[in-house]
């Protein structure tokens, strides 16, 4: 198995676990802010067993540490938006919103990497738009806010995936995961007290997990976060951020199938949702074909 093939296998495992994340987010009774805090708390606790933390801070330049910790803040905001959108709509709709990450990445990645925008990536990204229109048109009014926040989560995902791609190789995947998720926990630990003291909603924030929440949070933290995050980061060594995010668009496939089997999402979805999801998946599977065609076109002009 070549490094690229191994990267795709690892990424698909990570994507399946990410798809299960939405199911757990729906099953856990906590609001988004508390849920993400507990998620990154448990995840951060797991890393000292696999990462030499003291040596990491002693040997890594401060500038590099701060860059990865800054990305961690984006990750925290992404997850708060992601789970907040699930609470406002349902896992299936939010997972499809996340498929627009490839479109946002096609715009964001060239800005940071200073590379030329690839026309076919823009075309693939735009192919997702009609699918989202079908989904939005068929959604209930009460779910529209969830869709908007879900799209915001996708935009934030495009940013942190692109930034991670630029920095990959400076540290190993486990160390990067620890820094980013640890800084996400620190950030939310500062936000929650401020939210509590300065807003009426914060004072009624449900913070402590219920009985079954503990099991779901453990699975969410160790499998769907620690393991999935490390695998996804490692795959970036051999895949572009756009190719990675387009593969991550399979998250709706895994997640929607799981939601259909385990939850009652199918009762809340109309045919427009499934047609929209089909359009988005066509864009996902078109990427390897268009990429291969673009390479042949470039080679033929040399």
TrEMBL record:
Keyword Transmembrane present in the record's keywords: the answer is yes
| Residue ranges of the TM segments | 12-30, 36-57, 64-86, 92-112, 119-136, 142-163, 175-198, 214-232, 239-261, 273-290
Q: Can you give the residue ranges of the EamA domain?
A: 13-136, 145-285
Instruction: Name the domain of life this protein comes from.
Output: Bacteria
Q: Which InterPro entries match?
A: EamA_dom, EmrE-like
Query: What SUPFAM superfamilies does UniProt report for this protein, alphabetically?
Result: Multidrug resistance efflux transporter EmrE
What Pfam families does its record include? EamA (PF00892)
Q: Which GO terms describe its cellular component?
A: membrane
Q: What keywords are assigned to this protein?
A: Membrane, Transmembrane, Transmembrane helix
* Keyword Zinc among UniProt keywords: no
Q: Which PANTHER family match?
A: ACYL-MALONYL CONDENSING ENZYME-RELATED, MOBA-LIKE NTP TRANSFERASE DOMAIN-CONTAINING PROTEIN
What is the name attached to this protein's record? EamA family transporter
Q: Which organism is it from?
A: Flavilitoribacter nigricans (strain ATCC 23147 / DSM 23189 / NBRC 102662 / NCIMB 1420 / SS-2)
